Automatic annotation (TrEMBL):
This is Glycosyltransferase. Gene3D superfamilies: Glycogen Phosphorylase B. InterPro entries: UDP-glycosyltransf_plant, UDP_glucos_trans, UDP_glycos_trans_CS. Pathway: Pigment biosynthesis; anthocyanin biosynthesis. It comes from Erythroxylum novogranatense. One of its GO terms (molecular function) is anthocyanidin 3-O-glucosyltransferase activity. PANTHER family: GLYCOSYLTRANSFERASE. Signal peptide: none annotated.
Length: 470
């Protein structure tokens, strides 16, 4: 029977993309293996998902996709960080029986050598254990976030203190101390579902056959030393950690995008790219403030804009750009700005020679894509582990400037204007660009033959084939 690796991402499009890139990496270097990617419902947010999976299957026949039946999680009545994160976990829980049946069907024609789980699918660990399938986790963010997850059960059990209390600092091995208010409220609220889900993830990870991390050794040496050395767990143990990164999507589809055509007419390193990921939705007030800051800065920009959430947090129907941007903004900036609604080919944009900076939500994929393209950043974290990522970018790697927020996490037009000017037009910005250029070379070295990430990949595949059990 043919050997297959089953990958199980959560219901977010970004996580699907990351799992597919992991699958490509595995079969490109070990073509005797097959990869099956399990897709959970409800449908992914981006409507082009079906087109995307069909294109992957056409160009990479060794990767197939298996759609689970649609499940119906509790409806989201108010779009908050907690409700969105909770739904990802709940979809996986509801899909456990569907996944069980799917794995049984796959095993009729292929030998499943491993199941690789997204962290939001940690509940599936029980399914794979019952079927005696070696189970790994793919942590799509960096090693700092991994340290947090591995340490979370210890943190929860060693103290009864209220993490929400003012002036509370959370100490995690391998990571600088972080004020609790920088974490999502749901992650530090002991009464929330998300708090309990994260505790479960940490426990399941420590029981797994290994953790795959989308990073490379030289990028996060401090955090990796803590995680591998057992400093994050109560018993000092750690499953094998395989750093395979950077795993990024360097090439996009070959369709022409208007924004890429526009970039062709811009000077080298002159354009500031603003992109906040699929979950980066601002209020109308904050969106207007960004526009004012960009206009005042005088820089060239390419901005991916999503429909803002109303102040009550309830999702609304799509609206026109003019309805929530300042009056006349698009007309006044048309000679130096380009706005894209909802989505743009980020990797292709970052690798274009006219792009000189990225304003990012500090999502890990975006960080790695910027590092691989040699583009310095303005760090504006929004949720999840992104505040940890900003600490890494600003304080340890020194390839980004922080965008400072007020107490209610609002960023003023003046703050954005000043940071944009500093990144694009100052000696500080040049220093950041020089540092990220060094990281770019180190990333290339890690993924070359004999590099740390390629050595780790060989060890991972050897582990798959040896059939380590949980």
């Amino acid at each position: 029977m043919e050997e297959v690796i089953v990958l199980y991402p959560n219901a977010g499009r970004g996580h699907l993309d990351s799992m597919v890139e992991l699958g490509k990496l595995i079969i490109n270097h070990y073509p005797s293996l097959l990869v099956t990617v399990v897709i959970s419902g409800p449908p992914h947010e981006i409507p082009t998902t079906l087109t995307y999976t069909q294109a992957v299957s056409a160009t990479t026949p060794s990767i197939t996709f298996l759609q689970l039946p649609t499940v119906t999680p509790p409806p989201i009545t108010s779009f908050t960080e907690e409700t969105i994160i909770s739904q990802f976990f709940e979809i996986a829980v509801l899909n456990n029986s569907n996944l069980h049946n799917a794995l049984l069907n796959v095993s009729k024609t292929s030998k499943i050598k491993a199941l690789v789980l997204d962290l939001f699918c940690a509940s599936a660990f029980e399914v794979s254990t019952s079927l005696n399938i070696p189970t790994y986790f793919f942590y799509t963010s960096g090693a700092s976030g991994l340290c947090m997850l591995l340490h979370w059960p210890t943190l929860v059990n060693d103290t009864t203190r209220d993490f929400k209390a003012p002036n509370t600092t959370i100490n995690i091995p391998g990571v600088p101390p972080i004020p609790s208010e920088k974490f999502p409220l749901s992650a530090v609220d002991r009464s929330s579902k998300v708090f309990r889900y994260f505790e479960e993830v940490g426990l399941q990870m420590t029981k797994s056959a290994g953790i795959i991390v989308n990073t490379f050794d030289l990028l996060e040496q401090r955090a990796l030393e803590a995680a591998r050395g057992g400093k994050c767990t109560s018993d000092g143990s750690s499953p094998p950690i395989y750093c395979l990164g950077p795993i990024v999507k360097i090439t996009e589809d070959k369709a022409e995008h208007d924004c890429l055509t526009w970039l062709e007419s811009q000077p080298s390193n002159s354009v500031l790219f603003l992109c906040f990921g699929s979950g980066g939705v601002f209020s109308a007030k904050q969106t207007r403030e960004i526009a004012i800051g960009l206009e005042s800065s005088g820089v060239r920009f390419l901005w991916v804009v999503r429909d803002p959430l109303p102040e009550d947090g309830v999702q609304s129907n799509p609206t026109s750009l003019e309805s929530f941007l300042p009056d006349g903004f698009m007309e006044r900036t048309k000679t130096r700005g380009f706005i894209v609604k909802s989505w743009a080919p980020q990797a292709a944009i970052l690798n274009h020679g006219s792009v000189g900076g990225l304003v990012t939500h500090c999502g890990w994929n975006s960080i790695l894509e910027a590092v691989c393209a040699g583009v310095p950043m303005l760090a504006w974290p929004l949720y999840a582990e992104q505040h940890l990522n900003r600490v890494l970018l600003v304080e340890e790697l020194k390839v980004a400037l922080p965008v400072n927020e007020s107490e209610n996490r609002f960023v003023s037009a003046h703050e954005l204007e000043m940071k944009v000017r500093e990144l694009q037009n100052s000696e500080t910005g040049k220093c950041l660009r020089d540092k990220v250029a060094i990281l770019r070379k180190e990333a290339l070295m890690a993924t070359n033959n004999g590099g740390s990430s390629r050595v780790a990949l060989a060890k991972l595949v050897e582990s798959f084939r040896n059939g380590f059990s949980n």
